[in-house]
Amino acid sequence: MKTTVDYLKTLVNIPSPTGFTNAVMDYVQKEVTTFGYEPIRTKKGGIMVSVKGKNDTKHRVVTAHLDTLGAMVRGIKPDGRLKMDLIGGFVYNAIEGENCTVHVAKSGREISGTILLHQTSVHVYKDAGTAERNQTNMEVRLDEKVTTADETRALGIEVGDFISFAPRFELTTSGFVKSRHLDDKVSAAILMELLKLYKEEQVALPYTTHFYFSAFEEVGHGANSSLPHQVVEYLAVDMGAMGDDQATDEYTVSICVKDGSGPYHYDLRQQLVALCQDYQIPYKLDIYPYYGSDASAAMRAGAEVRHALLGAGIESSHSYERTHKDSIAATERLVDAYLKSPMID
């Protein structure tokens, strides 16, 4: 678990809003290459690590996505502050007061700032508490001496520059992990750790398995392409959604039975449940009502596969998120057990 959490800390500290994932993909590609694999960068910018198994006729795919929520510069205001356009499905309230970085395309420079409501000061604005948090009212205050649009443009900032959010990673003594972008860098860290262990321990998987780190999940089309024709099972490792009427918690692995795209494959889901019972892995079954995964994106694209979804339970998803090491461990154990198990007949 220590190595998994170390990978997680490294991953969340590499900015990777959807569309701006080269740096994190470069890191993962370099790291898994040191294990002894030969990763391939897909045309969409993802990474495929293929591990040959005893059976090379039927293949599996297991995915985690490395793209995160973020924003783009929408415009430069007369006072030099920035308008934003959001990347991914979240609300402005979730990022109010967050430190951020503007990645300047012209120069490669990184400029820090803070995301604020325009009417933030309660000493000046009567509606500071009631004003709607939206694209009109929210802005980036740059940590530069700028008071006009021309001064901001002189920094090289223009429309289309990416904005990433400070992760604020923290591991508590009680075992909680708090950070932005646990969705889905927890899962990516798990897959990296398993790849490392399989190589070190010379594990021979029963089927050729493609570990797919995808780059466009947060905008819906994710790992829906580049699938080898031999693939018959597709496991998305993503986050378990927590909230009212949800079974998912921060201490078990969450197995999704249905999300916004519809039910997942019943027989494959039941196999995951059986593995949890056989190996005494704590789990919950749950429905995520406003959710889609790399697996559901692949199904919409026409993939003829059995698909399933599981993940660690994430509190306050798409905001300042939290999970517990127990949930990460349960998720890692289930993915490992699945990849070593026989396929459904």
Write structural notes for this entry.
Strand 14 (253-259) and strand 15 (262-263) form a beta hairpin. By secondary structure, the chain is of the alpha+beta class. It has 7 helices and 18 strands. Helices cover 24% and strands 30% of the residues. Strands 1, 2, 3, 12, 13, 14, 15, 16 and 17 form a 9-stranded mixed β-sheet that branches. Helix 1 crosses helix 4 (182-200). The longest helix has 19 residues, at 182-200.
Give a quick summary of the entry:
Helices cover 24% and strands 30% of the residues.
SSE blueprint and pairings:
Layout: H1 2-12, H2 22-35, E1 40-41, E2 47-51, E3 55-65, E4 70-76, E5 82-87, E6 99-103, E7 110-117, E8 138-142, H3 149-153, E9 162-165, E10 170-171, E11 176-179, H4 182-200, E12 207-214, E13 231-241, E14 253-259, E15 262-263, H5 266-278, E16 283-287, H6 294-300, E17 306-314, E18 321-324, H7 325-339
Parallel strand pairs: 3-12, 3-13, 13-17, 14-16
Antiparallel strand pairs: 1-2, 2-12, 4-5, 4-9, 6-7, 6-9, 7-8, 10-11, 11-18, 14-15, 14-17
Helix pairs in contact: 1-4, 4-7
